[in-house]
C-alpha cells in the first residue's frame, strides 16, 4: 500500500518538477535539454490534472498535496543541480577552495604563465599575448599551443604556494584597517630573473584609496 501511495505522489510530483526545471533551465537559461524537460513536464502536468479531475469525479480521495509539494521540491532541486553554476555563479576564487579549483583549471591548459590575475569571479592566466580565463565554471579561450609565455617573466605554477593566498588576504585587511574590499590578487615576476611576487590589492575608505601587500612565492609577506 505504501508503495502504491508513493507512486501516486510521483504521478503529480514528477510532472510539476519537470515543468519547473524546464522553465528555469529551458526558457530562462536556454539549455536545450531542459527545453525538452519543459515540453514533457507541460504535457505530463496536463495529464496529471486530467487524472485528478477523473479521480474526483469517481469519488476517490485527492492526493496529499503537502507530500506532493515536498516531493516536487526535492525533485526540482535534484533537477537543477547541473545548472547550479549558471544559477548561482561560480565559486569565490579568493577562497582556498575556489582558488584551488581555478588554478587546477589553468593547469589543465598549461603549467607556465607570465602573470596570473585573480578576482572573486574569475582567474586569468596570461601567456604572451594570449590569456586563459576561468569564470563561472567555464574555461575560455584556450590558447594555441604555439603561443608561449614571455621567457623574461615566465614562471611555473608549482613555484607558487596558492594555499597561502587566503592568509595573505587576511593579513592585508589587518595591515590596512580601512580596507573595504579585496580588489584582486596578482602573481607576477616583476623583471626577468627577479623572484615571483604575490600582490594583494585592496580598496580603502581613507585618503589613500588603494593599498597592497606583497609577498614572495611561498607566501612570506614583506
Mind explaining what this structure looks like?
This protein has 222 residues and is of the alpha+beta class. The chain has 2 domains: 2-88, no CATH class; 96-216, no CATH class. It is built from 6 helices and 9 strands, in the order αααααββββββαβββ. The strands form 2 sheets. It has a 7-stranded antiparallel sheet with strand order 5-4-3-2-7-8-9, with helices on one face. The protein has a two-stranded antiparallel ribbon with strand order 1-6. α1 (2-28) packs across α2 (32-57) and α1 packs across α3 (65-80). The chain is elongated and about 85 Å long.
Short description:
The protein has 222 residues and is α+β, with helices and mostly antiparallel strands. The protein has helices at residues 2-28, 32-57, 65-80, 84-88, 96-107, 165-175, and strands at residues 112-113, 115-118, 122-127, 130-135, 138-140, 155-156, 179-188, 197-204, 210-216. It has two domains: 2-88, no CATH class; 96-216, no CATH class.
What are the defining features of this structure?
222 residues, alpha+beta, seven-stranded antiparallel sheet, two-stranded antiparallel ribbon, disordered N terminus, membrane, transmembrane, transmembrane helix
Topology:
Blueprint: H1 2-28, H2 32-57, H3 65-80, H4 84-88, H5 96-107, E1 112-113, E2 115-118, E3 122-127, E4 130-135, E5 138-140, E6 155-156, H6 165-175, E7 179-188, E8 197-204, E9 210-216
Antiparallel strand pairs: 1-6, 2-3, 2-7, 3-4, 4-5, 7-8, 8-9
Helix pairs in contact: 1-2, 1-3
Amino acid at each position: 500500500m505504501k508503495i502504491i501511495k508513493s507512486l501516486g505522489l510521483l504521478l503529480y510530483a514528477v510532472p510539476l518538477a519537470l515543468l519547473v526545471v524546464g522553465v528555469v533551465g529551458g526558457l530562462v537559461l536556454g539549455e536545450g535539454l531542459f527545453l525538452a524537460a519543459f515540453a514533457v513536464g507541460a504535457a505530463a502536468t496536463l495529464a496529471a490534472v486530467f487524472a485528478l479531475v477523473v479521480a474526483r469525479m469517481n469519488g476517490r480521495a485527492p492526493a496529499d498535496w503537502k507530500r506532493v509539494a515536498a516531493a516536487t521540491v526535492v525533485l526540482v532541486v535534484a533537477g537543477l543541480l547541473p545548472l547550479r553554476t549558471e544559477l548561482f555563479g561560480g565559486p569565490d576564487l579568493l577562497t582556498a577552495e575556489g582558488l584551488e579549483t581555478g588554478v587546477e583549471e589553468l593547469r589543465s591548459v598549461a603549467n607556465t604563465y607570465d602573470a596570473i590575475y585573480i578576482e572573486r569571479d574569475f582567474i586569468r592566466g596570461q601567456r604572451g599575448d594570449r590569456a586563459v580565463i576561468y569564470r563561472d565554471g567555464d574555461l575560455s579561450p584556450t590558447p594555441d599551443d604555439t603561443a608561449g609565455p614571455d621567457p623574461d617573466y615566465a614562471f611555473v605554477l608549482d613555484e607558487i604556494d596558492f594555499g597561502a593566498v587566503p592568509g595573505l588576504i587576511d593579513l592585508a585587511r589587518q595591515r590596512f584597517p580601512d580596507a573595504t574590499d579585496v580588489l584582486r590578487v596578482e602573481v607576477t615576476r616583476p623583471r626577468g630573473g627577479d623572484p615571483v611576487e604575490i600582490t594583494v590589492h585592496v580598496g580603502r575608505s581613507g585618503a589613500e584609496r588603494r593599498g597592497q601587500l606583497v609577498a614572495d612565492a611561498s607566501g612570506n609577506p614583506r
